[in-house]
Amino acid sequence: MxxxxxxxxxxxxxxxxxGSNLAQMLLNVTDTVMLGWYGVEALAALVLGxxxxxxxxxxxxxxxxAVMGRVSASLGAGDEVQARRDTRMGMWLSILFGLAVxxxxxxxxxxLRALGQDPHIAALAQEYLRILGFGLAPALVxxxxxxxLSAQERTAVVLWITLAGVGLNAALNWVLIFGNLGFPELGxxxxxxxxxxxxxxxxxxxxxxxxxAPGLRHIALFQRFWRPDWEAFGMVxxxxxxxxxxxxxEGSMFQASALMMGWIGTVELAAHGIALQISSITFMVHMGLxxxxxxxAGRAHGAREVTLLRDGAMVAVGLxxxxxxxxxxxxxFGGRELTWxxxxxxxxxxxxxxxxxxxxxxxxxxxxxxxxMQVMALGLLRGVQDxxxxxxxxxxxxxxxxxxxxxxLAFTFGLGGVGLWAGLALGLASAGxxxxxxxxxxxxxxx
Length: 447
What we know:
It is a single chain. The protein is an all-alpha fold. It contains 15 helices and no strands. It has helices at residues 3-38, 40-76, 80-100, 102-106, 108-114, 119-132, 136-151, 156-176, 188-212, 230-264, 266-302, 306-340, 350-383, 388-412, 416-440. Helix 2 (40-76) runs antiparallel to helix 10 (230-264) and helix 5 (108-114) runs antiparallel to helix 6. The chain is globular and about 60 Å long.
């Protein structure tokens, strides 16, 4: 394939995935903006609660990411039966995981207090998580189905379903957070109920499409779903657990950053949440390209096309880097304006939040480049089904470099929140460098 054809193939697959990721992020942005209007304490509780939920979600989401790589490789080798087996057992693993961690969400308040968080904010975060925790299993199953559809290069439908969810979530937030249309004013609990409802409805829509769409119906994805397939169960678990732990290593670094920022102050924590939300929005573009790279690399790897794998990887990484340079300029020159979008100008605390948020985005401009390196490398490595070594690289980078560096820069050297964000950048730089080297020197690129 020519470079132009690679660009076209990755764009056709990646743009809907990028749109889906951005739409998914807009669900969280909607919660952040509307609870920011509702009150600073509610916003701080959302930052803690959503960070907590995200850390647990990323561990379970490893099964979906494993399914994407395995199904892509199976389809590249022309084996639809194996694709069906892996997807079903990915859903099994997701359901079991979601049920197993419910007690963690139910007792989140005690966990957050033990980690030094303000008791009142921790109590509000627990109210949020006790509701949203019931949505974890549906959310993970939805991600497995999304991985199956992505491997089939059916990404547009995921985009439209997610966009519909954004609109529904905003409407439900308006009703349930603020108590409009005669409903009770529920604050953070209203945001959790809205998110839970949208997740369940989106799951039904995606599952219906996967079961009935032309070209997919013959796969019979849900036929005799209750029957175990222990061989596929074991293969998906063995690949998915390292993927999940890799994601948790990164996610827990950001969770630890939220906890440490909570030690600094509530205003700083709110600014941290906004800055992280903004950087996460741009990160969704890289995540979409990473998912596209997984599918394209998996298909090339399954078909044993080394040149196709190498050239496709170069194009995907190049596209991600080009967008990363754009976001660097955006964060440096437009950080203040971006932060104000999340706040009510009439709130007296907003000016201080904007001051801190602008500083944090200056540092985020640098770590965006390191973040895209690690997420693109991970996507390519999942496509060639290499997950164990990246797991150890992630643990080293995030837990032995990123978190200690954040703590030392923030507290030992007195740099506060800016130092904390600089430590995050160091952890991402380590992970991105090691993983990129591993992919480009791997045996999958040898003739």
